Amino acid sequence: WYTTQERRDPRLILPPSCPTDGVHFIVSVAIGALSLFGGGPSGAHSPLTPTPAPTFAALPNATSMPSATPFPSSTEIAIIAVSPTGTSVPTETPVPIPTPAPTPIPTSMPTSTPTPVPTSAAIPPRTLTQTPSATVVPSQPLAPTPTSTLIPVPSLRLELLNKWGLFGNEPGDMNRPDGIALTVGGAVYIVNSRSNEVQLFTSDGGLIGEFGSRGDGPGQFKSPLDIAVDSVGNVYVSDTGNNRVQKFNEEWRFMLAWGSEGGDVGQFRTPKGITADSDGFVYVVDSGNGRIQKFTGNGQFVLTWGTKGDALEQFRSPRGIATDLAGNVYVADTFNYRVQKFSSEGDFIASWGGASEDEELPSLPTRLQSMAKAISM
Fold it and tell me: To which H or E segment does residue 239 belong?
């Protein structure tokens, strides 16, 4: 008898007709390979030493076992059983695996006759015709455009000439100086917001005099933050805590005050920066209302512009202000991180600084931290 198994599955299955008493052997022939298996009545089979011979001689008294139909593939395995009495069971001749005939390799490659390339007639040499040289047109200088005009900026070298002031409350001492202004003659006014007083020094730091105290009466202040001087020497103080502006003459005599807390024209909420132009007009930064107010030197309201926000012509806690000789007004838009320029009539001219298009402005806590850091410096 014999059966078929794929090469990758080495298990052998004995048919029921195979004797199970005594010891028997199984010989497996698989495409030129031979394996012997020994076993006993338990039915277990273990491989023995393989023998390379692919064929065997049948023993006497061999009885042929019925064979199964050969498996039509190259994985056929023929099995021979030998009984304990020495009787062998010959197997059918295994179906030989045809070996494909090798393809003969030619000993030489046929050579092809090269196709002759016709010889063409000789090509006469080409005559080069010289073209007349082109006329060179001198390049014209490009006309400058307004956007390409470069404004030369002179290099500045700053040198410390003098310094003065110590912390304290004695004459000449300073306690949080916040505002500064110059007179026509070059004297220096300082406003101290914590000591609530105004001081006047020479340009070399010599104390000329001081006035003011804490309160809400004429000539008194509550945390004044800025000071301005007009062309005739009048002094204007931004009396922030009292939400008003006070005016003094050049001899520091009180002249008038205007303003109160509120949002109407002529009123203020935390006025900060103040300046006077060459025509005698006074500009006040009404920081809490997010606007600029313009007055005459006598405190009469002229106009106002600006609201709270971050768009152009809007402000967030504006602080500083200044004017140039042409009357233009510059505002330090503090928490929009920019400067805005206006005409003396409040018309917007330009803006620079601020956050980029892809950048958000710092949040309020960040602004407060920046303020605290600036105050501590």
Answer: strand 235-239
Q: Give the CA distances from residue 366 to residues 12, 272, 363, 370, 373, in Å, rounded to whole numbers and listed in that order.
A: 84, 21, 5, 6, 10
| pLDDT tens-digit series, residues 177-232 | 999 999 999 999 999 999 999 999 999 999 999 999 999 999 999 999 999 999 99
Close Cβ partners of 225 (under 8 Å, ≥ 6 residues apart): 178, 179, 191, 193, 238, 240, 271, 272, 273
Which token pair is 274?
């103040």
State the Rg of the chain over Cα. Answer: 56
Q: Any bridge partners for residue 145, and if so which?
A: none
With beta carbons less than 8 A apart as the criterion, state whether 294 and 304 touch. yes
CA dist., res. 356 & res. 227, Å (int): 33
**In angstroms, rounded to a whole number, what is the distance separating the alpha carbons of residues 355 and 183?**
36
Contact between 275 and 236 (Cβ < 8 Å): no
Which residues share a beta bridge with 167? Answer: 174
**Residue 27 in tokens:** 């010989």
CB 229: neighbour CB atoms within 10 A? 19
Confidence class for position 233, pLDDT limits 50, 70, 90? very high
The torsion of the CA quartet 196, 202, 203, 206, rounded to 10 degrees, works out to -90
Q: Where are the beta strands (DSSP E) in 54-158?
A: 78-82, 88-89
Segment holding 110, helix H or strand E: none
* Residues composing the chain: 377
Number of other CB atoms surrounding residue 103 within 10 Å: 5
Query: Residue with structure tokens 């455009």?
Result: 145
Please report which residue ranges of the chain form alpha helices under DSSP H: 364-376
Q: What is the per-residue pLDDT across 73-100, written as a single tens digit (0 to 9) for each? A: 444 444 444 444 444 444 445 545 555 5
Contacts of 20 (CB under 8 A, 6+ apart): 14, 41, 43
